[in-house]
Amino acid sequence: MISVKNFEGVSLFMSNERLYAGEDLPVGTLVGVKDGKLVKADSATAIPAVTIITTGSARKWGEGYQFNRESVLRKGDSAELYKIATLSGVPEEMIGKSDWARGKAVYLGTEGKVTLTKPTTQDHIVQPIGVLGDPTRKEVLLFLLQGYEVVPAGIGG
What we know:
With 157 residues, this protein is an all-beta fold. The chain is 3% helix and 31% strand. It starts with a strand and ends in a 7-residue tail after the last strand.
């Protein structure tokens, strides 16, 4: 299970300005904005990451408590937006096999995930979003402060 630590004081918007989820978004998902709603960020569909989901929705009244459940921000619920965060316990399938070299660049991938592979496909966006951190904790340090570029024609496959 991925755990996300956000850093107070680096919120994208003031705390009373929130965006709402356009779909169910698991904690640890990189998200962008489409039609005024939070959706999974995706390099292939040119939706750049603006934040990461750090907490899920509160349990509904009467909903049973589940241990070790994946926390999800439900469609229609709002989220605070953070630009700097640490992901710990990142599963290998999310980022790919790696020698986990501390400081190695991490990019926005597809479906709200991170990747170590810099996108090269035409019209995909290249958005550096952070670096690899502590290898024993499978940590990714996110800095969603950078811009992005689009892979031009003739460069990618």
